[in-house]
Amino acid sequence: MNDGSNQAVGSLIRTRLSVEKAGGAADLLRRRGGGVMDLIAHFWDRLPQTPPLLRDDLHLLIAWRRPDGALDTADAVDMNRAVGAMLYVPKAQRADVFAPSAEAAAVFSGYLADWVARNHPPSGPDQAKPDENRLTSTNTFHNKNIPINYITGEAVGIDAMLANLLTLVNRKAPAKKTLNVMMRLPDTIKAQMCPRVRSARNGDESILNKWRKSYKQERGILFDADVDAWIESGNVFVYELDGNVVAMAKFDLILPNIVEIGGVFTFPEFRKHGIGGQLVRDLVCRIRSTGKTPLLQVDVTNELALNMYRKAGWVEIGQLVRVWLAVT
Length: 328
What we know:
By secondary structure, this protein is an alpha+beta fold. The protein has 2 domains: 7-181, 3-Layer(aba) Sandwich (Aminopeptidase); 197-312, Aminopeptidase (3-Layer(aba) Sandwich), CATH 3.40.630.30. Helices cover 29% and strands 27% of the residues. It contains 8 helices and 13 strands. A 13-stranded mixed beta sheet has the order 1-2-3-4-5-6-13-7-12-11-10-9-8, with helices on both faces. A hairpin with a 2-residue loop joins β9 and β10 (244-254). α1 (22-32) runs antiparallel to α2 and α3 (102-119) packs parallel to α4 (155-168). The longest helix has 18 residues, at 102-119. It is elongated.
């Protein structure tokens, strides 16, 4: 699929691909993303399953370098020369971006600006009354019809794009931004099971709900409320001390090659005794027993957790950012 929007920016080319070619783009995220983009790559792998009627709303872009700088067609993309990728979904007002250089970031922000200009032209006092899909006369978007609101991906590229993206929604700063450090435990670091760790079971509902509320108070994130489904999944784990559950964690996402550990939490009165570390090491063992790699995300502002993981041997592989450009 090529919508005629191919354009060279510097020595790079941007090309819109058919979703049937999403596998190559997902491979690029894994190969060049250093592990930060692996979670997003998993969802890109599934793009070919999108129903045909919805595919026109999937803008899959590749930024790639051709020696002569000439434009090319989607079918001729040399993925070995690809330097970045973006999936933009206008109806969802979101984009996933991997742009490891300012040059690649310019390619994608330029594409978004062009698309917005074609599909959301500004209106003025002397023009017809704007419909709900257009800009108002003051150049601001109706909250429910902004062209892009949510963007996620490797932090460097998105930070490079942010100034340009904010102009599309007439803002000087994003409404919300979260930045997580992605961490992986090298295979050379040993871990062991802990006899105090077990899967959550029937009867744990009350303590799991307490976990949800406590985590929300401390970290601003409220987990899914279906604790019965958590227990049934077998992917939620608790640390039990003298018959009381004092810490818990879960598998946030289980992919073919990696498992993400999330929601690690020790109740305040039981902290500073190494309980969280024992719990995480136990989960690492469980993940490794399946032949997969453990991965986790830590809010960049959570210095206590970051220091704990660093001391335990976890290494930073990059940063994943999520940005909400406007309040919707």
